[in-house]
Write a structure and sequence with these properties.
Among the domains are: 79 residues; 53 residues, no CATH class. The chain is an all-alpha fold. The chain is extended, with a radius of gyration of 39 Å. The chain is built from 7 helices and no strands. Keywords: Coiled coil, Nucleus, Ribonucleoprotein, Ribosome biogenesis, rRNA processing. Component of the 90S pre-ribosome involved in the maturation of rRNAs. Required for early cleavages of the pre-RNAs in the 40S ribosomal subunit maturation pathway.
């Protein structure tokens, strides 16, 4: 018959001490940032600790200045459109001078390929300038209408909010009046152009079966 093996007290004490050491190591990993033994060595991090998705890989020094975009920063203040237009009005003058320069180059140039390139640049620049003027005129009309509406409200009238469709009609009327004042002969061309554009829109909206003429 085999006699049962009796465990020594020293073995129990060693196993308990080992468990305590493991617990202490686990606690030391959780508490505070890991310090390097030498400043030349890389930082050691436990493999048991899960890596965060939005972690900072390199510890940057605090004295580095953060870059900021003044367009989207509250420190730059609110955007003042009127002040911006006044400050950068010289760009419009520069564009006008560029158009004149391109026109002179086209008149002097003899190479047909170069003439075509210059004409494309000229038409692109002219359309850009015309679009900017159109936007500026729209803003001016909106500002005038708002001013008139505020004056009427101050007199006791109920506020009136104009629809986008009516706004477009008023813009078209203003454009028509300006053409009539500057060049009365161009009015017929403007009306014909608008008529063709509207006819093309109606043609696109029309069902395919109705487009056929039987």
């Amino acid at each position: 018959m085999s006699t049962p093996i009796q465990s020594n007290g020293s073995e129990d004490s060693t196993s308990e001490s080992d468990v305590e050491k493991v617990e202490e190591v686990g606690k030391s990993e959780k508490v505070g940032p890991v310090k390097r033994k030498s400043k030349r060595r890389p930082v050691e991090i436990s493999s048991k600790k899960p890596v965060g998705r939005f972690r900072q890989v390199v510890d940057l020094p605090s004295n580095i200045k953060k870059r900021r975009d003044p367009r989207f920063d509250n420190l730059s203040g609110k955007f003042n459109e009127d002040l911006f237009e006044k400050s950068y009005n010289f760009l419009n003058e520069y564009k006008d001078s560029e158009i004149k320069e391109l026109q002179n180059r086209i008149s002097k140039e003899k190479d047909p390929e170069e003439i075509e390139k210059l004409r494309q640049l000229l038409s692109k620049l002219q359309s850009k300038v015309a679009h900017e003027k159109q936007l500026k005129q729209k803003k001016l009309l909106k500002r005038e209408r708002r001013k008139e509406e505020l004056e009427l409200v101050s007199r006791g009238k109920t506020p009136f909010y104009i629809k986008k469709s009516d706004e477009k009609k008023l813009e078209l009327i203003d454009k028509f009046e300006k053409i009539q004042k500057s060049n009365p002969k161009a009015v017929d061309k403007f009306i014909e152009k608008r008529r063709k554009r509207n006819a093309a829109k109606e043609h696109r909206r029309m069902p395919f079966k109705r487009r056929r003429v039987e």
